[in-house]
Design brief:
- This protein is α/β, with parallel strands linked by helices.
- It has 2 domains: 2-100 and 244-260, Leucine Dehydrogenase, chain A, domain 1 (Rossmann fold, 3-Layer(aba) Sandwich), CATH 3.40.50; 103-241, 3-Layer(aba) Sandwich (Rossmann fold).
- The chain is 37% helix and 20% strand.
- The strands form 2 sheets. It has a 6-stranded mixed sheet with strand order 2-1-3-5-6-4, with helices on both faces.
- Helix 5 (102-113) packs across helix 9.
- The longest helix is centred in the C-terminal third of the chain and has 16 residues, at 240-255.
- Bound molecules: 2'-monophosphoadenosine-5'-diphosphate.
Length: 270
Amino acid sequence: MTRYAVIGDPVAHSKSPRIHTLFAEQFTADVQYAAIQVEADGLKSFVDEFFSAGGGGLNVTVPHKESAFALCASTSIQAQLAKAVNTLMLDSNGELFGDNTDGRGIVTDITENHQVAIAGKRVLLVGAGGAARGALPALIEQSPEQIVLVNRTLAKAQTIQNEFADIARVDATSFEALDRKPFDIIINATSLSLHGELPALSPALIAESTCCYDMMYGDSDTVFVSWAKQHGAGVCLDGLGMLVEQAAESFLLWQGKRPETQPVIAALRR
Ligand code: ATR
């Protein structure tokens, strides 16, 4: 049996053990997947010991994604751009490798599960924290017409704009300066839904054809999803699909097989 786990602080709420157990059942893989609370000052020793003891892989969640990135001997391009990892494993030399599958998760959910193209579209990314950083590389890969990055703290959006300047143009802006023209896709990458709050966006940014995506999810519509529905957005999605798709990408890295995600998303919705 191979051991896997998600590490975070707090982590008890994590749906990853359920998701990975459902994935493993599809292949009758002998896998044990746990949620383990790890504090910041114990991160390095935990990771070292987990892999020394034969652990197969780790998922990393808040608040360790950036510090886990710093522990890696090598990382994927996506992780380098995001400066954060959500997936750890040992490479063929036995050294720690980190990837960030969050971006592939959201893009797969939008483009494949919901058949909304990102290529050639105008995308508004709201927020400039770790969630926005993680999504950006994969969004850019889809070749949207434009990516506007809006954040309460403009300087953080500008830093990201500069860091990504070599690979794509990202237009950083404040909420006040945001043009009141509809976007094709609006992604909420702020933590506001956790507190039942909305980013300060004008409903004029929404057209009938707009897809609004909240990276957060809940048992009922998040406030952002409710806001999007209320103002007539054509496609209104929460982040449950992204959660399952990023997990499937981690499973693929570890096991070399990509599980079916639809039945798992459906099971979690129930
Ligand atoms: P995560 O890793 O989940 O992205 P984070 O790095 O703390 O978390 O980023 C949270 C994001 O939500 C940031 O974009 C933050 O804006 P600031 O950079 O200005 O802090 C945004 N956010 C959090 N609370 C907010 C609020 N009350 N109004 C507007 N934006 C908020």
